Amino acid sequence: MERTFDYVVNFWFGPRGSRKTYRYDEKKKEAKETNTNYGVWYHKVHHYFLLHAHCKFLKKHKIENLKNIIFVVNLKNKDRYNNILNEVNEVIEWHGLQDRITVITHDNTNHSYGAWNAGLKYLVEKTPTSTYAFLCEDDYIPTDENFYQPFFDKFKEDKHTGYVASHVDRIPILFNILGKYKKDDGDPYDSEYPKKNTSARHAAVSNGFISMQVCKEIYLSKGEILKLHKPNIYDRLSNRAWEQIQFTGFIEDLGYKLEGISGPDYYVPFDTNNSNKAIAFGKEGKYTPIKPYSYPATVYTRPLTKQDLVWFLFIRNEETTRHFLKDNNQFTIEEAQEWWYNLPKKPFDPYLVIYDRRRQYLSQEDLDIDTRFRNNKTYIEFVHDVGYIRQYETEIDGETYLEIGADIDLKHRRKGFAKAAYIKKLKDLETASLWVFEDNFARNLYYELGFRDNGKTKINRGRKEYQMIWRKKN
After folding, report:
1. Total Cβ atoms within 10 A of residue 307
2. Which of 5, 15, 175, 286 has the greatest number of CB atoms lying within 10 Å of its CB?
3. Beta pairing class for 399-408 and 351-361
4. Distance from C-alpha of 206 to C-alpha of 169, rounded to nearest angstrom
5. CA gap 289, 63 in Å, rounded
6. Domains along the sequence of the chain with CATH
């Protein structure tokens, strides 16, 4: 019999909870950011970047044994986010998945675990259930159409397994010195805990698969699926740590096992701070079924100079660049120089070069051989110009917008540089606009970044152009 699964992912469209970290630089007498945290501000560019990521995965991969797809939207303040459901459904429809995805809401209690509980209850109550349900946080994305197989294999090894997480570990539980705790006998979720310091086995990286048969058994006896109540004791664990410990409590109460896939055969990366820097569990280099969302890498910009014009024309005159520009004429270097001299440089530079800066760290052997690096510099820095940004002020319905665009060198395309450049620009703006041809694939990128059609169109060279506008999310 074919084993099937349902897909349950929770979404939060407010600020990501992680914070930046800093180190004081004695020489410069200023705080230096030590961990680039994209999650803190990235939601202001567009709330729905993680929604797009899951939709793109589901659209790209046709998984035959994937049945129901449930998106659980955590709404902490329904008045503030009263338009979220309409916008979520709009994104889903943009990807053509409106007939496949069911959207439900949850009040954000118990964070991801509460949302998963709501999704599992919906599946048990409303639909014929599959063999398993995949539970995923919104900022983790499956890697390919076979991501479920390592989890399925764990279930197959032992029929008494109830949940297979990405990584299972132990966490210490530290009670106060008196070992005091208070037990409310009227609380159906409460249970005895030891008065001494101890530890608990838990799903340290919780994304994984749960047996739907186990869910049915728990639901019939408990009315819930997951145990999500912090016991009323004096301990030093955060609410989220207790949620993580109790998350599989009902499963283990019924005698089912908690297992994980990390180990010699699989690699499980865990992003602790929305920083693209992962803690490694399992064996690096091995197959990775699920990865943290990868934020666009940082790019850098500088004003376009006269010395850049030959390189600039190489991009500007390239056929596939011109095809999507308002003016598709080719220009000579003499024309470009005259154009550059007449460009207004205030109140801002209208053209900015986008460049990528990468460091290659040196081995100790390199440092010993090459005397150039004996000044404690342990890396070589490479700088590559990859494209440019266009920016002009324009007026739309009496309001001033910054009209922007980006062109990327052909050899640097499809590497995320355009997306990274737009994000760098947008995070410091309140509004922006652009024009895009109907047949330009970049229209999908603009939509993902939060640009929306404002109803204004025009015909250019026999092709339809849309004006799109963007506003920062509050």
Report:
1. 8
2. 5
3. unpaired
4. 11
5. 14
6. 5-292 (3.90.550), 300-471 (3.40.630.30)
